[in-house]
Amino acid sequence: MNTVKTKICSSCESLFSCGDISVENKCWCNDFPPIFNLSDGGDCLCPACFKEACIDKIDAYVETITPKKALYNKAATLEKTEILIEDIDYYIENGDYVFKSWFHLKRGSCCGNDCRHCPY
């Protein structure tokens, strides 16, 4: 049986729904990169706080990447997903999608198109 739980964000203390009644054992947070361990402390975060925490953690990781390290990065080993998340995988500039370093790292190699945020 699928249930949706109402939780309180451990960061901002707002109420939010956890879980998805349409898919068993699935929650909105499963659409985000699996970069957190449950042991990272605190309870669940609301969607806004969770997204911000993901952005912060990914940005800190990307800052450590050199072209040599990019070839063997953790992002390329994560489970592949079709979902692109604004501000994590891309941002929009003048109506165009600009892919961020995280998107390129997940792909695992340079595409050769001289992308602005290519880490390779």
TrEMBL record:
One Pfam family this sequence matches: DUF5522
InterPro entries in the record: DUF5522
Official protein name in the record: Cysteine-rich CWC
Protein source organism: Flavobacterium reichenbachii
